[in-house]
Amino acid sequence: MQNVRTYVEEHKQRFLNELIELLRIPSVSADSAYSQDMLDTAEAVANALRTAGCDTVEICETQGYPIVYGEKRIGEDRPTVLVYGHYDVQPPDPLDLWDSPPFEPVIKTTSLHPDGAIFARGASDDKGQFYMHVKALEYMLRSNSLPCNIKFMIEGEEEVGSKSLSAFVKENHEKLANDIILISDTGMIANEVPSITTGLRGLSYVEVEVTGPNRDLHSGLYGGAVANPINILTKMIASLHDEKNHITIPGFYDKVEELSMEERTEMAKAPFDLEEYKSALSIEAVYGEEGYSTNERNAIRPTLDVNGIWGGYTGEGAKTVIASKAYAKISMRLVPNQDWQEITALFKQHFESIAPAGVQVKVTAHHGGQAYVTPIDHIGYQAASKAYETTFGKAPVPQRGGGSIPIVALFEEELNSKTILMGFGLDSNAIHSPNEHFGIWNYLKGIETIPYFYKYFAELST
User: How many other CB atoms are there within 10 angstroms of residue 271's CB atom?
Assistant: First the structure.
């Protein structure tokens, strides 16, 4: 194991080249135009697992895109680690905001990444991060240092709600049986401040449609006489927060976990520079729920945000119409004890109730998932902490994340397994945004650190 850093350095260029080739494939699950690219990516992932040393590799068909499964067993008496990742990526739009084409990876140096970063859609979320595990397996097999059985489950629908994964997990309990689940689809505070995500927020994602007249109308002939769906929709959305930025949906906060001041004080010890945060986003002030810090707002508090809004004429020039319909997509990030289906029902009931006469409202639930917390006294967390301390030279900070990985709660329910979130990305990686990137240092550090997790987990499991 002591030679892992040398191995990574010796094979650095090959590791980068392999990831770059994977990033070239536009595996956008949300757009059916990329269907063949999705299938090509699944095949590429399967080939990578075979090359790394998996004895069994399968491309498992689902109702949607396939799940790539691989395993390497070394003994029935050894603990088993299930690695989860996803090969699908977010749509690259808006394309005009990318400095380079999203599926033509380039390496550039930045102030945060003096060793260079790979700029491409999926570089950090999640191709670069799950591929670290593939290369870590390669190292452990070539160095004869693998202490655990390994299973891989790499899906292709995470960015669209993991539509097929639930059925696959429920139908494959024996195949997926494990002692711990390992995921790298999160980040850490900074390269010099390693951290492990111990909690994830849940998610409720809905689409709303407001319908007024039965057709688009001339705004001169009908303006002021009939309800304008776009005007109405914006008013309805604005009413979802009060003057303190609390969410106004009745019952929304009823089950929210309130952390003690002691816990909040511990969280506040994590390094955070508010001025640097604002500067990085080019904003003059932060914004959010009154009574909570920025780090609390984006981790331990629930939120409601409009992710998209449209209606009427948006083309070049002018077209004076009152649109028949207006739409919005809305996501709610949830905290422990908030059930996403219950919150979705509360949203639907409230949103329909505040619609004025003259319009009809339709609420469509797209997908969601429950919040999740990993206790820091679990041996999986302890193994991860020791791994980071070995390669970073300091213990990682436990940190709750603001994002959602809905399938983590599903794993615990169906497989009775805890999940350890060993992310090596940074908040500045621009995931889901133009110019997504992943630092070369972070990529290689992940490959170096992951084998130590297996070493310590095996030791702690005996």
Answer: 10
* Residue (of 97, 120, 90) closest to 107 by Cα position: 120
Read off the tokens for 323: 């649109």
Contact 401, 199 (CB under 8 A): yes
pLDDT in tens, 140-170: 999 999 999 999 999 999 999 898 999 999 9
- Calculate the CA 167 to chain-centre distance: 20
Q: Measured at the alpha carbon of residue 255, what is the angle toward residues 253 and 259, in degrees to the nearest 5?
A: 90
DSSP, collapsed to helix, strand or coil, labels residue 206 as strand
Residue ranges of the chain that CATH labels 3.30.70.360 = 202-256+302-369
Residue type at position 249: I
Angle between helices 35-52 and 127-142 (to 10 degrees): 20
Predicted model pTM: 0.82
Indicate where the chain has its CATH 3.40.630.10 domain(s): 4-200+371-461
Superfamily of domain 4-200+371-461: Zn peptidases (3.40.630.10)
Could you tell me if 128 and 461 are in contact, meaning their C-beta atoms sit under 8 angstroms apart? no
In sign, the C-alpha dihedral spanning 93, 131, 66, 198 is negative
Q: Which tokens is 130 given?
A: 């799950």
> In sequence order, what E strands does 242-400 have?
303-311, 321-322, 325-334, 360-369, 372-373, 397-400
Q: Give the type of residue at 108.
A: K
Does residue 385 contact residue 462 with C-beta atoms inside 8 Å? no
The segments of the chain whose pLDDT lies below 70 read 1-2
DSSP string, 97-144: G-SS-TTS-EEE--SS-TT-EEESTTTTTTHHHHHHHHHHHHHHHHTT
DSSP-based three-state secondary structure for 403: coil
- Fold of domain 202-256+302-369: Alpha-Beta Plaits (3.30.70)
Is the torsion defined by CA of 162, 163, 169, 170 positive or negative? Answer: positive
Q: Residues 330, 125: contact at Cβ < 8 Å?
A: no
447 backbone dihedrals φ, ψ, rounded to 5°:
-60, -35
pLDDT given for residue 266 in this prediction: 76
Joined tokens for residue 324: 């028949």
Q: How far apart are CA 374 and CA 220, in angstroms?
A: 59
Tokens of residue 262, six digits = 């002691």
